Amino acid sequence: MSSGRNPENNDKPDPFLSSEPVPANDFELPDLKQEAKYGVYLWWPQEGDDWIHPDDVETCKSMIPGNRVFRREEYDSVYSILLYADFYIRVKPTMWLEVESDLYEVNDQIEVRSQMGRYDPRIGVITEMRWERIRQKIIYEVRQGEQIIGYYDATQIQPAMRLDEHLDERRRRLLDKYRLM
Fold it and tell me: What's the whole-model pTM score?
């Protein structure tokens, strides 16, 4: 019969071996990473700026309100972290409009689909992600170097990659979503 003790640490009961209830504080749960959420702040979410981390107020005021699509990925006990390109903003939970992600991100290299000759197929980099209210979709600004080559939705672009490029989980899901793998 098992003692209900963890063989690696005799001080704490093993919740899987014990037949008695084990207090939650006596063992650690694995960190569960939440899926990233995407959304926009079309309006200033509340009076004042006490919902913004004090170090991020100026950056936040330059980016919100607007139609930029932010990625909310990490949390701590007080602030959520919003990411946009190379910027991050720490904010307390507030009202925003959550939008469905196409899995593309700012700085992703993409190819513009020719769509039967309608567009010139080109390789570029996503430099902006904006929410278009009327069509209810994300529009991507794409550049080649310093030149803007156009504004596209997810149906008009596809991931571009080198043959020797390593695929992380996000890129794998992106390629799978657009059936390019």
Answer: 0.70
**Residues whose CB is less than 8 angstroms from the CB of residue 169 and which lie 6 or more positions away in sequence, other chains included:** none
Q: 181 Cβ partners below 8 Å, 6+ apart?
A: 172, 175
Q: Are 119 and 104 in contact (CB under 8 A)?
A: no
Both tokens of 22, joined, read 């084990």
Mean pLDDT within 69-87? 85
- Backbone φ and ψ for 2, nearest 5 degrees, come out as -75, 145
C-alpha 142/C-alpha 111 separation (Å) is 9
Segment 46-64, tens digit of pLDDT: 788 889 999 999 999 999 9
CA-to-CA dists, residue 58 to 46, 62, 84, angstroms = 16, 6, 15
Q: Which residues pair with 141 in a beta bridge?
A: 128, 151
CA nearest to 160, candidates 105, 120, 123, 114: 123
